[in-house]
Amino acid sequence: MAASLLRLHFHDCFVNVCMPLQGCDGSVLLDGGEKNALPNLNSARGFEIIDSIKSNLEKACPGVVSCTDVLTLAAREAVYLTGGPYWSLAFGRRDGLTTSETAANEQLPGPFEPLDNITRKFAAKGLDTKDVVVLSGGHTLGFAQCGVVKPRLFDFAGSGRPDPSLDASFLQSLQSTCPNRNESNSNLAPLDASSSKFDNVYYKLLVNSSGLLRSDQALMSDNVTGSMVVGYSKFPFLFYKDFGASMVKMAGIGVITGSNGDVRKNCRVVN
Q1: CA 208/CA 270 separation, integer angstroms
Q2: CB of 215 within 8 A of CB of 115?
């Protein structure tokens, strides 16, 4: 579940329901709203883990630790326990009171978007190009559904042919995992060759034209982001250090503090 918890945290922080407030506010955990958005529907997971942690916390110290802080810390531990870096976190975030399906559909970066669009969405959250490259490295963990991948394998940009940038042997392997049939859409393809371990293999695959998602491989199409990818493919500890720093930045997007917001008793509903 490591990848799912990391993704939940990312999707929570990236959606501002009430600009400029509310980024990392636990809104993705509320039933309805963001859970029903296209990037989350039938793919966002880990809610039961957050519920379990929150239930135990409410027994030990009711009304103290927000769902947002639980998710933020769970994402850090997920990375650390799969071999990734550890970074220090500040706590005291409060939970938001609203969730928006529309905001999630509009603001979350998608796997089919060009790099310029993704960079602009990051910039809108106060994150720079380096953060784009570093946080994309979270795709060292987990899987993607074949329905997201198949356009690259069989009908890239409506050409009727595979994406020419894909490594030939990698393409053949993916076409076996994700055959060109509708029933394969829910099959899972690993985001990198060591998808249960946090490492820098993701970047090595991009250098070899073997990135699973179009949006990932696009990092190699730009001189600036491409040079960062090459650097992280060679120096894993540099990636670990920078990943922690970018995660701290992301965990500070639009946080609610003080008497604003709430500390939910149940992460799925407002008090």
Answers
A1: 47
A2: yes
Q: Which residues pair with 188 in a beta bridge?
A: 145
Per-residue DSSP letter, 143: E
Alpha-carbon distance of 166 to 164, in angstroms, equals 6
What per-residue confidence (pLDDT) applies to 139? 97
Give the per-residue pLDDT at 132. 98
Is 11 annotated as catalytic?
yes
* CB neighbour class for 241 (10 Å; exposed up to 12, middle 13-18, buried from 19): middle
Annotated binding site for substrate: 109
Cβ-contact 66, 255 below 8 angstroms: no
pLDDT along the chain (271 residues), means of 10: 97 80 90 95 95 97 97 98 97 94 94 95 96 98 95 93 94 96 94 94 96 95 97 98 98 94 96 94
Which residues make up each annotated binding site? 12, 15, 23, 25, 27, 34, 109, 139-140, 192, 199
pLDDT of residue 18: 65
Q: Which residues contact 243 (CB under 8 A, 6 or more apart)?
A: 79, 84, 85, 134, 135, 137, 138
